[in-house]
């Protein structure tokens, strides 16, 4: 089992400034799953009822000189502490800039998988090692990682990943992530369960309701991807709640309940500076999905080498 | 605008307000703990929100009808309902978008006696809320504030300085003595307990800090620290930024009245200096009053 690659400058920026801060909010520990073509950061795919987050990079988006080999179709997966990873990347960046001046190529940042015997241990342990080579010196940082996943576990992870790729039939574009985040932060003060309705007309309706208070927001005429329909004119002047329940009854909308905390967490992904975000409800209300899109810099074209989406587990109406 | 159901029986009050953040600030100023019940009084003159604690502390927020972009009152006399102050403030906060003013409509009662709130300035984004109200179990207590003698005992002090002084007095102990004396004209705040701390505000030393001083005889009263602190603990940052003053008056029996002014909405940019008591544009100011009962009567007369 071998893995060795050089992080590109672009890759370092992408991780340090955008993705790692967001992924850290999703949870401290994640799976790093490496294949021949992709590197993926996966949260909560195998365990628990937390929010699932799937960040996938084509190897060219982060690395050059990418070499991987394993007896399991060149696939390697392990768990890693995102905070430690972020710290290592950050200090490598500062070392690079300190050592800089001798040309960019000299300060390349290599990462590789190693087994080392830590002090006071009898058994070698796996590490992800960052090596920053300067003109005269090199700095090495070892991040402890879990034992690589077994063949069966990798298959299970791949299975969960395949399962997590199903697209909602209707997706609506969130108009202003900051505004929505601001609102949801306020909602957190009021209640724990958020009901989310999404219609084919381009309505996104979120609401917290307790015995004391109901607080909600409705965003209308949003851009719809997938199945869409024209909003019936007689629904124009209704209250948001009535409109939602009518749309659901007509089969043009779906409603799910999720944890307000999960929803707020999913909005933390705006730290990755996406160019747009879409919410949708998976078929049969299995989960609430949010998909972030990244454009090729300076264009309106989707950058297919980076993808990020989250899946929020749906609460049983009984537990609300 | 409104649906036909509403027209059948008009609600007691429908009002619209442009600057939600100002309302959040004003109501937040009387929120000294997480869970507080408030009584809201509606009349043709505006809205008053009242909060009380232990029969010793009362706070009132006056929102005059001039503060509102629209204020329709259709009931006769006064209407009163109870509501959780925390929920009301948290909820109003959700309507406040940083850097933007948004027009909200407040209506009472809803079909189930709720307070209804909704954002009304955009067709494509609507924010709405319904807050349960209750019938207040007790009438707010009337403090019946009367001047202590023929001349009022009163002074104004920079709100920020008052807040700072009260914060500094946290360390010595549980009760704070306030002394007003005519010679030399000064106000003293004194804490005794784990050590002593005395803060003297001298009228002639700094007229910027202490003003409108009126006192014809020496008075001294003790107040519970936690009640005094409640009067400044959540003072909105706008009060400090605008360099406003607070007015303190000691009434009969040592009853202390503390008054703050909170700006609702932006001040016009032309304006450079705010008079310490801020008599510009009363329509943009919410008045806040705290009444604190003294602990025990000392040499008052």
Automatic annotation (TrEMBL), chain A:
Organism placement in taxonomy: Eukaryota, Viridiplantae, Streptophyta, Embryophyta, Tracheophyta
Transmembrane annotation, as ranges: none
A Pfam family annotated for this UniProt entry: Hus1
Protein name: Checkpoint protein
Family named by the database record: Belongs to the HUS1 family.
Protein origin, superkingdom: Eukaryota
A single GO cellular-component term on record: checkpoint clamp complex
GO BP terms in the entry: double-strand break repair via homologous recombination; meiotic DNA integrity checkpoint signaling; mitotic DNA replication checkpoint signaling; mitotic intra-S DNA damage checkpoint signaling; nucleotide-excision repair; telomere maintenance
Alphabetized UniProt keyword annotations: Nucleus
Compartment(s) where it occurs, according to its Swiss-Prot or TrEMBL record: Nucleus
Organism per entry: Acacia crassicarpa (northern wattle)
InterPro entries: HUS1 (IPR016580), HUS1/Mec3 (IPR007150)
From TrEMBL, chain B:
Family: Belongs to the rad1 family.
Top-level lineage group: Eukaryota
Taxonomic classification: Eukaryota, Viridiplantae, Streptophyta, Embryophyta, Tracheophyta
Protein name: Uncharacterized protein
Gene3D superfamilies according to UniProt: 3.70.10.10
Record-linked CDD domains: PCNA
Major subcellular site: nucleus
InterPro entries the record matches: DNA_clamp_sf, Rad1_Rec1_Rad17
GO cellular component, one term: checkpoint clamp complex
Keywords: DNA damage, DNA repair, Nucleus
One GO term of the biological process aspect: DNA repair
Coiled-coil features, chain-numbered ranges: none
SUPFAM superfamilies: DNA clamp (SSF55979)
UniProt subcellular location: Nucleus
